[in-house]
Design brief:
alpha+beta; about 300 residues; Butyryl-CoA Dehydrogenase, subunit A, domain 2; 4-stranded mixed beta sheet; 2 domains; single chain; 8 helices; 10 strands; about 20% strand
């Protein structure tokens, strides 16, 4: 979506030709650094260690990223680097299209995780990596522009909507597993779904999931329509979906009882995966900060 909305015709042709014909063509988005996480959205004057300096015909990048999803498998990385010093990050960072195998660009250590293990997270190291001028994605210096800027890159909105939907999908899987278990598990002379304590847990889970899904759909609609409060709604959806997902998974664990902690049952995996959603694509507090900032702007007029 980022390349589709911000790329030039040549960039999109180059990307789609590879993406369509190579089923292993993965993307990675490289923002997080050892000393820099989602605080860059809250304090745009903060540090951003990866640097790009202009040279004849393009840019040379140096720096280090970490916790980057798909990093060790990606064939193309959307790399964020500071291109303008002495200004806040929202006016001094650009995005570069960096193919795997580019000279000076390599994968560092791969991080071990308790969840979402199918998606590897790894370090990326850049040592004098040359990127041609035509590989700058979107407006120069505006990669972290705030939503109020007319040139702001709004790709993160759609990405967070997708993250919220993914979170809920995992929680729905936990609910389905718990419901199926309650239908066939017998205790106290009846299926446990017939016991009010278990039945009401399932009712609460379904209600919470439906409410969260409605918010995700509302936020996605706002993004498509380019509504002015889309960023607020997306943060609301992501934060609420993440909290709801963890709560639903914990209730699913209650329904299954001792079976829930056994590795042969997937509910424990759903919980571990949902715990990671509390911190991916922006922490809960980061989204709460964005929501509050927008609410205050609305009140101030």
């Amino acid at each position: 979506a980022t390349i589709e909305s911000l790329g030039t015709g040549e960039q999109k042709d180059w990307f789609y030709d590879r993406f369509i014909h190579d089923h292993r063509f993965l993307l990675a988005i490289a923002m997080t650094e050892p000393g820099n996480g989602t605080d860059k959205y809250i304090y745009p004057e903060g540090s951003f260690e990866t640097r790009a300096r202009r040279v004849d015909g393009g840019w040379v990048l140096n720096g280090r990223k970490r916790y980057i999803s798909n990093a060790s498998e990606a064939k193309l990385v959307l790399m964020y680097a500071r291109t303008e010093d002495g200004v806040p990050l929202d006016r001094g960072v650009s995005c570069f299209l960096v193919p795997a195998g580019t000279q000076g660009f390599q994968v560092g250590g791969i991080h071990e995780k308790i969840s979402q293990r199918l998606v590897n997270n790894a370090e990326l190291l850049l040592d004098e990596v040359f990127v041609p001028e035509d590989r700058v994605l979107g407006p120069l210096h505006k990669a972290l522009a705030r939503s109020g800027d007319p040139e702001a890159m709004q790709y993160a909105r759609g990405g967070n909507a997708e993250a919220a939907a993914t979170t809920l999908g995992t929680a729905w899987a936990a609910y389905d597993a718990a419901f199926a278990w309650a239908e066939q598990r017998h205790q106290g002379g009846a299926r446990i779904i017939e016991h009010q304590a278990i039945g009401f847990l399932l009712a609460e889970m379904a209600t919470a999931l439906e409410a969260a899904r409605s918010l995700v759909w509302r936020a996605a609609e706002a993004v498509d329509a380019r509504e002015p409060d889309a960023a607020k709604l997306i943060s609301m959806a992501k934060a609420h979906a993440s909290q709801t997902a963890v709560a639903v998974c914990l209730k699913a664990m209650e329904v299954l009882g001792g079976a829930a902690i056994m590795l042969e049952h997937p509910v424990q995996k759903y919980l571990r995966d949902c715990l990671s959603f509390l911190h991916s694509d922006g922490t809960q507090h980061t989204h709460h900060h964005r929501i509050l900032t927008q609410l205050r702007r609305e009140v101030a007029g």
